[in-house]
Structures are given as C-alpha cells and as structure tokens.
What does this fold into?
Amino acid sequence: MAKVAVMGAGSWGTTFGKILADSGNDVTIWARRSDVADEINSQHRNGDYLPGIRLPKTLKSTIDPSEAMKGTEQVYLAVPSQSLRANLEAWGASIPNDAILVSLMKGVEMETGLRMSEVITDALGIGEDRIVVVSGPNLSLEIAQEQPTASVAASTNLDAANLVAAASSNSYFTTFTNNDVIGTEFGGILKNLIAVAIGIVNGVGYGENTKASIMTRGLAEISRFARAYGAKKKTMVGLAGLGDLIATSESPLSRNHKAGEMLGKGYTLSEVTKRLSQTAEGLASVVPILKLAAVKDVKMPIVEQVLAVMEGRMEPKDIAPSLTHETDEPTSE
It folds into this structure.
C-alpha cells in the first residue's frame, strides 16, 4: 500500500483517486472547492463530476494542498494543463523530495509547447526519473462504473513506472508500463485533436464512412508527428495511441468529441467553451501542436482543418479527411 495524493477533483482526478483507493492505497484528493471536498468526505460522492458514482469510504479529500501531499510517496497531477505550471509553483515546497510525480494530463502548454512532463521538470527543477506519465483509453465515467480497461505508465525510470503500475492496478483497471514517455504523452495529446475533428463531422451529420476515414488518416497524421519527435511506432498503435484515439473519438462521454460536435452544429468557439462544464484539452492544444509540427515540417491537414473551423475560416460541413495525402500507414515494429 502506498500513501498517495491526487491533485485535482474533476472527473478524471476523482476517478483515478477511486482506482488508487480500490487498489488498496491510502489516498487523499486535493479539491479546489470546499463543497466538493466536503461531499467526498461526508457522502462519498462527487456529484458535479461523477453523478451516480459511489466513492470508496477510505477516499479522503481536502482543500489544503500541503495536507494532501504530506508524507506521500506518489503525487498524481490532474489539473487543467494550462494551470499546471502555476499550481506547481504554488505547491513546490509541499511536494515531498522523494515523491514520484505522476501526470494524468493530456495537453501541451500553450506558451511554450511543452508536454506536461516537461512542464513538471521545468517548473520544479527535478529529474525526469521522478516523473511518470499515465495515458490510455480512459473515459472517466466508464472506469468509475468499474468497466474493465487498461492504461500505460511510462517513464525513463522503469522502477518508478512499475511502482505506479502496482499502485493503480486492480480488478477493473490494469496498468502496463513502457519507457516511451514521448510516445505515450503525445498519444494522449494528439488523439484529442482527431476527436474534435470527428466530433465536428458528427455534429454536421456525416456518417460512419467519413468518421472512419478521419480516424484512420488521423492516426497516420498523429503518428507522423509523434515519430518526428522521437516516439516509437509501436506506442502509437498501442493503448496510448490507437486505443485512446478510438475511445475518445467515438464516445459521447469525451469532452473533446462534445466540443467538436458543438462546433459542427454551428456554435462558435467561445460558445463551446462557455457550454462545456470541464476543459476540452484538444481545443487548447491545436495551435501549439501545429507550431511544433511546423518545426519538424510535419504536415497535419486534419488538425489544420480543425483550426480553420475553430477560427470560423471554414464551414464545418467542408471539413473532410485528407485522403490524398501520401504517407506510410503506422505499423507496429
């Protein structure tokens, strides 16, 4: 059993807290809002983010970050990607010196283009051997309902990855390990962009052929990008790549799919942002990902079309997969 903290009480943070508690760990969730913390402690629920889900009685919550992280061996980070740096700077002194930092986030920092593991390293001045990235086909509500699924814990330090995998595996959630942090992290980031595209065409009313084409070509597109930055081929066709892409693109539970669907129905970007109850990381990642693609001269026509729709330069009905773009299909090694 490990003593762990989950920093963030949204749907994914709360779900992962449940996973960790059900795996036998001593878990405290940090919540920004006192009403959320009180509900978790007194009613064992988080109705705003996981309606209908009963949380383990052993799961605790607090609004004090120092209290949440005191004496912890592992700290799981589940805050919006654009607020991570500010949070880490505020929490720095409270993070135990030997704790493993686990990123549950799937985004890039808009100003710098850094992945979340890179933000952690930069903001805290710690080595990458203390950082683990968890990613996979993980829709919060389904997991909170204990529907079986799997994920990947990636780190340059496989001992750290194995500790996280052991802490987060139980009867309904299995965590595998690898050492491809870049591929695992980019898989989680990039699939959000394709999920927005598929949401757009779904909102327009296009059928399964169009969506299947975008998903297939989208996988090739995001694989080209990830491999240009050092990801392994096999990661992009594994749980953190293809697996996450399928789950996020097809499910109405996906915030990125919902965001795209609203864009497809004619809502403006500002209207979509206001209507979403939680952050859709894909919307914030489009611009920095395209900037990173330009650095490596990687063509991303589907993502470029998503940006055009977001900015009102393209009618949603005109978005379509770039099927004529010549490229190798991603294959496993």
